[in-house]
Please model this.
Amino acid sequence: MRDWIDRSDIQAIITNGGTGIANRDNTYEAIESLLDTRLPGFGEIFRVLSFQEIGAAAMLSRAIAGVSNRTAIFAVPGSSNAVKLAMEKLIGPEIGHVVLEVSK
Model:
């Protein structure tokens, strides 16, 4: 991940999986430790939208986003529905804007 963050030709990284609460889920900690700036609204809105689809289990998600060295990073849960939700409702509509803001 650090190698990708250091590359000038990569403007955004999207990961999926490992954002839950099981012992094997360590994506949140790995990504969070790399971030210079956090986008707490991403995780908050993801959980609200997810709650509308799956109910209270949405609180188990630790979706996270932020910026590291001018690279936008998004970590979403691994289920197909979660990836679709994140891409269609959050990342897809805003990725251009996020990359533009990060590059300033």
Summary: Residues 2-102 form a domain with the Molybdenum Cofactor Biosythetic Enzyme; Chain A fold (CATH 3.40.980.10). Helices lie at 2-6, 27-32, 40-54, 80-102. The radius of gyration is 13 Å.
